[in-house]
Every structure is written in structure tokens, then in C-alpha cells.
Amino acid sequence: MNEKLARAIQLIEQGQHEEGLKKVEKLEKEANDETKRTISELYYELGLVDKALSLVEPLMFAYPDHGELFAFAAECYSELGKEDEAIDMLTEIKSSDAAYVQAQLLLADLYEHQGLSEVAEQKLLEAIKNEPDNAVLQFGLGEFYLNRGEYRQSITYYKKAIYQGEMPDDLPVNPKLKLAEAYSATGEFEDAVANYKEGLEDDETPDGLFGYGFTSLQIDDYETAISVFNRLIEMDPDYTTVYTYLAKAYIAQQKLDEALQVLEEGIKKDEFNEDLYLELAKLQFSRGNDQKAVEFLEKVIALNPSNISAVKELLLYFDEEEDYEALIELLEFLDNYSEFDPLFERYRGKALFEENDIKGAVKAYDIALESLSKDEVLLEEAATVYLAAGNKTRAVTLLEDFLMLQPHRFDIEERLIELKK
């Protein structure tokens, strides 16, 4: 590297940015093409993408057969939000060029970002036809299919990358950890665990540890899950997702005090984490601390009225406690946020019926039945409400629907006979 440039970079690394950049800019005017290329990369790393692009563009025209220049320019355009220009640059790179594989990977990312998944897939498959043993391309296809939720396909290419190709050392993540993630997503937990163990021996990352712990939890290996999750917290206490799952592992072993402590520690790290409050609510219910549980559920709903799990937990509690006033108040609160679930209307109908609002109850059950026409509990409840509203025909129809689902409910059969007299 040019000595003057090396000195300028040293100044920048030492925090003397202004002085270092001045030296780089001065050197830029007298530098040869190779040094200009290095300076453009430096600008890119420093976030000065416009300056990087202004240097590399003339080099592209001077060296039209150097695909790596076009690929670098494409990365600059992409960073600047000019995706179409980036795609134009990458399509200029010939299949015989050493940068062709990199170009196809970049093109796939760009097309995927634009929502053109099929085109992205095509680019990757075209590239791998040219270089069927290229481990980077195989890994790229594994990533592509994993991100799309096509886990079987991703497993195929991750395995090819690991066992058939020569993997470079500068990949952003250990391929075996990604293979383990894919196996876990397909429910092949034993294979996932084996790959997590191997991958973590080489590269112990927070995501890898979380995946290993989560997979262990799925196969009821709570001891391993607890050990791995605690190791992750030691490595990265701000990885707040882990606290909920560590608590679940403790709860499965009936270690409720430990679970409570973990959840409280998690909330100290992230006071807006809905999952932590929801898990705390469930834990408090199990310990008989209903009022505390309700407070935690209300906290979740205040943070996010769209958290259906918390809403359903609270509605169920109010229903079981026959606190219909609180139930209706909660649903009216959710109405302000346009939150809807047919189950909400079932609860609303029951509560309004108990509060003697027959007309309101009928309206709610009408809505619920549009989506839950096979719900036996709903059918039986709704029949009672329609009878109270004087709609005997509708009640009979609902009870007949109920008997189709539960033909051995002779009490309902007898009730129908009476209604049809």
C-alpha cells in the first residue's frame, strides 16, 4: 500500500478523522489507479459512499473487463438506494469474469429486496450451473431458501456447502449453525442439536446459543436448555428474547422462583418486552396471584392492543370470574384500536346477554358465527340467546348444527324435540 495512504489511514484509525481525510483527498488527486481503488474502498468503509462511487466510476470505463469494479459500484449504488442502477452494473459482468459469482449473489439480494423472489432464485440457480461446486453459491442458496421458509431446500444447499465445497473463512456465520436452524424449523430436532453442538464448538455466537437452547426446549431437554440459555445471558445480557424461554424451561421443571427471577431480570433489561409480561402473567396465575397476573396482562395490552394472546388470556379470566362489566370494558377499549377477532364477539355476546342486553348479544353472536360456525360452545350459547330474543327458528338451526358435531348429546336432542312441537 502507498505509504502516504497508510499514514492517512493510521490517523483515521487513531481518531484524527479530519486530518486523515484531508491527506486522503490530497493523495486522491495524484494517485495511480490501484491506489484510487483502495481509496474508494476506504471511503465506502467510512460511509462516504458518494465519494467512493465518484472514484470507482472512471475506473470502470478504463477497465471494462474488471468485473470487481462493477460489483463494487453496484454495492455503492445499492447503499445509496439506487437499486436499478446497481442491477444495471451487475448485469454487465460476464459469466467468465471472476466477479460473476459475487455479482449473482448481489443481484439475488437486490431482486429479493424488490419482492422479485423468483428472479432472485433464477439468478442464483443460473450461477450455480456455471459453478456447481461453489460453496459460497450453495451457501447463498441455503440462505435464500431459509429466509423464504423453504427449509427442506435450504438444508439441501447448506449440506452441499459444508460437505462438497471449500468454504471461505470470511462467511458472516458458521454454516453448521444455519443448517441446525433449518433442521430445527422442520422439526428434525435431533439433527438440529447435533449441528448446533458442532457449529458452536467452532463459533459460539448468541444466535447459535439461542437456537441450541430453543431446540433443546422443544425436545424437553430442560437441563440443556437452562445451561445454554444461561451461557447466552453471560455472553450477552441484552439478548432479551432469551429470558422468556429460560423462564419456560424453569417452569417446566417446577422451578417457579427461578423463573420469576429470570423474568424480572429480563424486564429490567427491556421494560417494553410484551412476551416477558405475558409469561409473568401466566406464572402469577399458576401461583394463585390473580390480581398481579391481571396487572401484567393489562400492561401488555397497554403496550400493544394487537397482542391477541394477552387479550384472550384476560378475556378468559374475566369470563371465568363472571366479571362481565370488566370484560365489556376491555372489548370497548379494543374497539378504539379496530382490533377484531371472532372470539371477541363470542365473549361480548355472552357478557351482554348476562347484562340483559339481548339485542346487543344477538348482534355480537351474529358476527361471531360468521367465522366460528363449527364452534360447539358458541352454537349452544347462541341458541340460548336467539331463543331469548324470540328467534326460535334460528335457535333450532343452531342446535341442529350442534348435533351434527356432537350426535351423542341427547340433552340437546330432547331440547330440539321440545322446540319443534
From TrEMBL:
Pfam families: TPR_16 (PF13432), TPR_19 (PF14559), TPR_8 (PF13181). TPR repeats lie at residues 135-168, 206-239, 240-273, 274-307. Keywords: Repeat, TPR repeat. It comes from the Bacteria. The keyword S-adenosyl-L-methionine does not apply. PROSITE patterns: TPR (PS50005). SMART domains: TPR. This is Tetratricopeptide repeat protein. It comes from Salipaludibacillus agaradhaerens.
